[in-house]
From TrEMBL:
Catalytic reactions of this protein: butanoyl-CoA + H2O = butanoate + CoA + H(+)
GO terms for MF: acetyl-CoA hydrolase activity; carboxylic ester hydrolase activity
Domain of life: Eukaryota
Keyword Hydrolase appears in the UniProt entry: yes
Subcellular location per the Swiss-Prot or TrEMBL entry: Cytoplasm
SUPFAM superfamilies: Thioesterase/thiol ester dehydrase-isomerase (SSF54637)
Pathway in which this enzyme or protein is active: Lipid metabolism; fatty acid metabolism
Name assigned to this protein: ACO12 thioesterase
HotDog ACOT-type domain ranges (all copies): 59-174
Alphabetized UniProt keyword annotations: Cytoplasm, Fatty acid metabolism, Hydrolase, Lipid metabolism, Repeat, Serine esterase
Recorded name of the encoding gene: Acot12
CDD domains, per database record: BFIT_BACH
Cellular component GO terms, alphabetical: cytosol
One biological process term in Gene Ontology: fatty acid metabolic process
Length: 185
């Protein structure tokens, strides 16, 4: 379907239109840069296979923790505080990242944190964390949270309630960023 051209009536409309064109140009430029990087990495051959001998298996970074939601962890309706879940997720993610850097990781950012469903007092929350990828000075840890009430615990029927990607850095005693090893996803 061909759309009618936009009629720019005011100076503000012209400015907004110009800005939208520029944002689109930049966005498409980033996509092209990404495509070029992917093509270059494919031309270089098996980059990951070459480095795979030195790479660390992600199996070594898997961490699981179980927490029981108690009344201090919940609001007056009995729903678990989101901040409490985030704190537990940061703890398990930090332990996962520390298995690679052999130091104390520092949380840099939280990406795509999603609340998929509620948990309440009495639920057992199972936190699973594993390193997804490493970059030169940072590591991405994926954390998934599942909730079980007493009946679900017995029948092993989990409710997926949270997911997030946590990005960590690590520093040495001189506050210099440490380099993370390559991993085998």
């Amino acid at each position: 379907i061909e759309l009618e051209p936009v009629k720019l009536l005011s100076r503000e409309d012209q400015l907004e239109h110009t800005l939208a064109i520029e944002r689109r140009r930049i966005r498409l430029g980033y996509e092209q840069v990404f495509q070029n990087l992917m093509q270059e990495s494919n031309k270089e051959g098996d980059y990951y296979a070459f480095e795979e001998e030195d790479a660390v298996s992600t199996d070594l970074t898997h961490v699981q923790s179980i927490e029981l939601v108690q009344p201090p962890h919940a609001n007056h309706h009995g729903n678990t505080f989101g901040g409490q879940i985030m704190a537990w997720m940061e703890t398990v993610g930090s332990i996962s990242a520390s298995r690679l850097c052999r130091s104390y990781p520092i949380l840099k950012s939280v990406n795509m944190f999603k609340f998929w469903g509620p948990s309440v007092v009495g639920d057992r929350l199972v936190f699973n964390a594993i390193v997804n990828n490493t970059f030169q000075n940072s590591v991405e840890v994926g954390v998934r949270v599942e909730a079980y009430n007493c009946e679900e615990w017995i029948t092993d029927e989990a409710r997926h309630i949270n997911s997030a990607f946590l990005i960590f850095n690590a520093v040495n005693d001189k506050e210099e960023l440490l380099t993370f090893p390559r991993i085998k996803p």
